[in-house]
User: Which sequence fits this backbone?
């Protein structure tokens, strides 16, 4: 630098600025200092320049509008960056809590499904001794889970007098009904009457058919009577989401379908007990027990447990856990798998729901009962079964073999 | 050299002997890095600007020293090339460049002017004056002359603008003060004569002047900034780019050294040790006055209006 003394020149603005911004080489800096040491004017210029730079820096700090756009865009992220960690931790905690809650719910549901009997026994109200004989009479194979083999044997080997005696002896071993309900109808009274003596028991196939018809009639009556008080069960099944249905009646289109959901975790459904209705006075709770035992005693060819069951007379339809449908024309004695004609996985098989008024039910029940007994009256129409898949779609069939979408 | 010439203008006259050695690849690299194409500067024009800057600054080396291509490239990479091409584009009259300049520098320029003058009114005046001059409203010899042509990229353009503002303000202030009536200028100028015009005082002044002349430029700058300008240690440290404590230590050491040298100079001038110590105990105001004269006696006379011309 040539401007070494005050007598010559002052350095220009670029020299002074370069010195203030410290971009000069050591040699240039030394020359500038030599000038500055003797030049108050240039020292003052540099001092004012630094003050202006500091004021500008302060203005940039206090005024966010001065910041470049890119820096401002990054700003919000930087400002909230520290808040992201606790937010992420909270979200993770919430996810874990939801997972644990769902896992526990599934596990409790599975436990309830695997121990329905225990739960049902716990939920069952004490059954009066008068009702006890009705269970084996209504569904001899389903009445006693402890003796399914004996009952199966009875059905297989045709009816015989000894078997009839055995059945009669089973009935006789049950405690005697202490008192009759005040208003039993005729059919119920007949069903609840003492079994015929062994000598009077019909022999051979005819005797068995008669017995089965009586049993079916009894079940139908039970369904009709319990169905009147089972209105809330359908919604309950939707809540429980684990329906184990049993729909059935003693044949006849007039029979209103009934769906019994067996769910351990479910609260006891509200039942309307029909006093004086004979067999129907069992109520929905005992129907639950019947359905549960029926499902448990069914042995499907797949070896899997049945989850849904419907029957009309000797015709029974059952769905196993895999969603396969099986048909039995001999009251569950032999099963035949039905080819899948529906989409998705079948969850529920049932009798078609028919809207009937309460006033219509009693006569129809009477008619069905008479038809089942062969005592004359209008012939019963073929029942309609329904299958509900996992998507809520419905297929219908009258014979259980051919299914058409609704 | 005429005293009115600036350092930069002197450098303009220097031959650009080594400029031709600049590699074409380096020019291309710097041309792209500076985004010169945005302002319509071709590579040839850009190279010419670089050569002018390198010649004016001697590539940061001693005057007359030969430079290698590597040294030239290192020097060019140290320049604020983006600011340089913008300044040249503005000086050339490029409208887009002016729009960018106004958008980026107009407000900082005004804030700097207000900070320098400590007055909003004076700041606006100062900034507008420089802005008009930069825009080329001022003509010299019938030719429009833009001060931005004197910017060569050594340091930032904003820093250059601040320094230019500060120069103009200081020069205006000094010129105005010089025009004030003497009686109103400085009442303290009529100082009473020393009670004891020591016979040793001229010897003392010579001894101090000699001692100061022996100091390094940085030490003299420290003394002048701290004792004469009244800057704080922090302000001096910021200018030098060192820590405040470093400035303090250097000042103590410098004062101690100067004292020793003054004593030594006095003794060399034939003064005894005792007499020299007594002379050192002279009223500090006497020494102060002498020191101020020593450092500033020619400033008023040599003040030249040269910045940004």
Assistant:
């Amino acid at each position: 630098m040539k401007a070494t003394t005050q007598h010559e020149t002052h350095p220009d603005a670029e020299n002074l600025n370069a010195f203030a911004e410290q971009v000069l080489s050591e040699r240039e800096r030394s020359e500038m200092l030599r000038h500055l040491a003797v030049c108050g004017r240039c020292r003052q210029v540099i001092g004012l320049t630094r003050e202006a730079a500091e004021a500008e820096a302060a203005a940039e700090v206090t005024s966010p509008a001065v910041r470049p756009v890119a820096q401002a865009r990054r700003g919000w992220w930087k400002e909230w960056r520290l808040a992201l960690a606790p937010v992420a931790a909270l979200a993770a905690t919430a996810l874990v809590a939801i997972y644990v809650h769902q896992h526990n719910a599934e596990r409790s549901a599975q436990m309830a499904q695997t121990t329905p009997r225990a739960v049902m026994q716990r939920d069952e109200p004490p059954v009066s001794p008068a009702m006890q004989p009705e269970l084996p009479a209504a569904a001899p194979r389903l009445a006693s889970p402890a003796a399914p083999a004996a009952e199966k044997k009875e059905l297989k080997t045709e009816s015989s007098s000894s078997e009839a005696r055995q059945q009669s002896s089973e009935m006789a071993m049950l405690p005697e009904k202490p008192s009759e309900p005040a208003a039993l109808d005729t059919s119920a009274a007949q069903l609840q009457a003492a079994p015929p003596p062994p000598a009077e028991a019909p022999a051979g196939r005819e005797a068995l058919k008669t017995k089965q018809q009586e049993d079916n009639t009894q079940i139908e009556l039970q369904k009709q009577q319990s169905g009147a008080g089972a209105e809330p069960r359908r919604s309950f099944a939707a809540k429980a989401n684990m329906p184990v249905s049993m729909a059935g009646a003693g044949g006849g289109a007039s029979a209103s379908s009934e769906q019994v959901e067996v769910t351990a975790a479910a609260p006891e459904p509200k039942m309307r007990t029909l006093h004086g209705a004979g067999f129907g006075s069992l109520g929905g709770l005992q129907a639950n027990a019947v359905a549960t035992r029926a499902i448990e005693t069914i042995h499907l060819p797949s070896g899997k447990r049945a989850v849904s069951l419907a029957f009309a007379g000797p015709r029974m339809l059952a769905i196993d856990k895999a969603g396969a449908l099986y048909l039995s024309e001999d009251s569950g004695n032999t099963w035949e798998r039905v080819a899948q004609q529906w989409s998705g996985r079948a969850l529920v098989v049932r009798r078609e729901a028919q809207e009937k008024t309460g006033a219509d039910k009693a006569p129809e029940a009477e008619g069905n009962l008479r038809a089942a007994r062969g005592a004359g009256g209008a012939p019963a129409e073929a029942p309609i079964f329904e299958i509900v898949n996992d998507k809520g779609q419905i297929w219908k069939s009258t014979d259980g073999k051919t299914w058409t979408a609704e | 050299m005429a005293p009115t010439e600036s350092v930069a203008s002197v450098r303009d006259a220097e031959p650009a002997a080594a400029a031709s050695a600049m590699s074409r690849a380096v020019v291309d690299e710097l041309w792209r890095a500076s985004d010169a194409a945005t302002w319509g500067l071709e590579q040839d024009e850009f190279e010419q600007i670089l050569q002018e800057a390198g010649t004016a600054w001697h590539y940061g080396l001693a005057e007359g020293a030969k430079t290698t291509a590597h040294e030239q490239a290192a020097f060019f990479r140290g320049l604020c090339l983006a600011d340089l091409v913008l300044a040249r584009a503005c000086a050339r009259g490029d409208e887009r460049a002016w729009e960018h300049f106004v958008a980026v520098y107009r407000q900082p320029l005004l804030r700097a002017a207000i900070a320098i003058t400590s007055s909003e009114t004076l700041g606006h005046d100062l900034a507008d004056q420089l802005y008009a001059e930069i825009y080329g409203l001022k003509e010299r010899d019938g030719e429009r002359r833009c001060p931005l042509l004197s910017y060569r990229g050594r340091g930032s353009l904003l820093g250059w603008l601040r320094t230019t503002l500060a120069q103009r303000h200081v020069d205006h202030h000094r010129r105005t003060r010089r025009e004030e009536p003497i009686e109103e200028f400085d009442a303290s100028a009529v100082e009473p004569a020393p009670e004891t015009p020591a016979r040793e005082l001229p010897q003392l002044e010579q001894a101090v002047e000699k001692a100061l002349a022996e100091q390094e430029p940085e030490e003299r700058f420290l003394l002048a900034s701290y004792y004469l300008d009244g800057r704080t240690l922090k302000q001096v440290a910021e200018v030098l780019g060192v820590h405040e404590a470093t400035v303090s230590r250097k000042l103590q050491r410098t004062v101690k050294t100067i004292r020793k040298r003054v004593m030594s100079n006095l003794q060399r001038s034939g003064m005894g040790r005792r007499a020299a110590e007594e002379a050192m105990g002279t009223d500090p105001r006497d020494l102060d006055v002498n020191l101020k004269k020593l450092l500033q006696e020619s400033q008023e006379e040599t003040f030249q209006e040269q910045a940004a011309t």
